[in-house]
Amino acid sequence: MPENTPLVLRQDAGAVAILTLNRPDTRNSLSRAMIAALHGALETVGAEPGIRCVVLAAEGRAFSAGHDLKEVTAHRSDADGGAGFFAAIMAECAAMMQAVTTLPQPVVAAVEGIATAAGCQLAASCDLVVASESAKFCTPGVDIGLFCSTPGVALARAVPRKAAMEMLLLGEMVPAGEAHRMGLVNRVVPAGQALAEAEALAQRIAARSAVALRMGKRGFNAQAGLPLDRAYEEAGRVMVENLLAADAEEGIGAFLGKRKPSWQHR
C-alpha cells in the first residue's frame, strides 16, 4: 500500500461520519501512527456539530489485531530497552480510547473478522457494537506472556467482571454470538453486513436531537462509576440541563400535540 495512503478514511452520510481503519495489510494493527491518525479523526469529528453519530469500521478481513508487535519489538534495542516507547504508546493509546468514550457523538463499531487485544479494547470502548457472524473477539496477551491489562479496562466496563476475567485469563476467541450473550456486542448480522447495519443504526440515532444525544452520552458515562446517590444527583442535574434545552421543549410539545418534532439541535 502506498505510503501516502490515509491510515483512517472518512466518509459522511448526512449527519453520520464513517471512520474506517485503512491498513488491511497489517490487519489494522494499532501502530503509533494509526493511534495518532484515529485520535486526530475523532477530535475533528467531535468538533463538528453537524455530525450526530459516528461509525467506526475497518478495511479488510480484520477489525483490528491490536498493537503492532513488530513495532513494539523493534524498540527493545533502544538504550532503555524500549521503556520510553512502551510508556509513550500506552499513554497515547489510552488517550485515543478515552476520546472514543468522551466523543460528544455516540460511536457505533462495525466489526467484521477479528478484534483482538487492543482491537477488542477499541470495540469495547464504543457505545454500540454491531458484529458479523464471522467476527471474533479475543484478549490473547496471556498466550505470549503479556496480560491484556489495558484492554481489560474497556472490557471490564462493557461486560460482567467474570466474563471479562475469563477472556483475559484464557485468551480464547469469543464468537460473535457468545460476545452478544455476554453484552460486548449489541447485534449480530450475516457476514459482510456489519457496516450496513451499523450505519442504519447510526442514521436512526442521528435523526434525534443532537443536544439530547450529547448530554445523554456525557451524563451516562459520568454517572456510571458513581455511588447510587451521587449517580442520581448527576443524572438529575443532566435532566434539568436537558429540560431547559430548546429541543426538549419542542419534543415534549410535539408529543403532546401529536406531531413530528422539528429539532433545532440546541
TrEMBL record:
<dbReference type="GO" id="GO:0004300">
    <property type="term" value="F:enoyl-CoA hydratase activity"/>
</dbReference>
<keyword id="KW-0456">Lyase</keyword>
<dbReference type="Pfam" id="PF00378">
    <property type="entry name" value="ECH_1"/>
</dbReference>
<dbReference type="InterPro" id="IPR052377">
    <property type="entry name" value="Mitochondrial_ECH-domain"/>
</dbReference>
<protein>
    <recommendedName>
        <fullName>Enoyl-CoA hydratase domain-containing protein 3, mitochondrial</fullName>
    </recommendedName>
</protein>
<dbReference type="InterPro" id="IPR014748">
    <property type="entry name" value="Enoyl-CoA_hydra_C"/>
</dbReference>
<comment type="function">
    <text>May play a role in fatty acid biosynthesis and insulin sensitivity.</text>
</comment>
<keyword id="KW-0443">Lipid metabolism</keyword>
<keyword id="KW-0809">Transit peptide</keyword>
<keyword id="KW-0276">Fatty acid metabolism</keyword>
<dbReference type="InterPro" id="IPR001753">
    <property type="entry name" value="Enoyl-CoA_hydra/iso"/>
</dbReference>
<dbReference type="InterPro" id="IPR029045">
    <property type="entry name" value="ClpP/crotonase-like_dom_sf"/>
</dbReference>
<comment type="similarity">
    <text>Belongs to the enoyl-CoA hydratase/isomerase family.</text>
</comment>
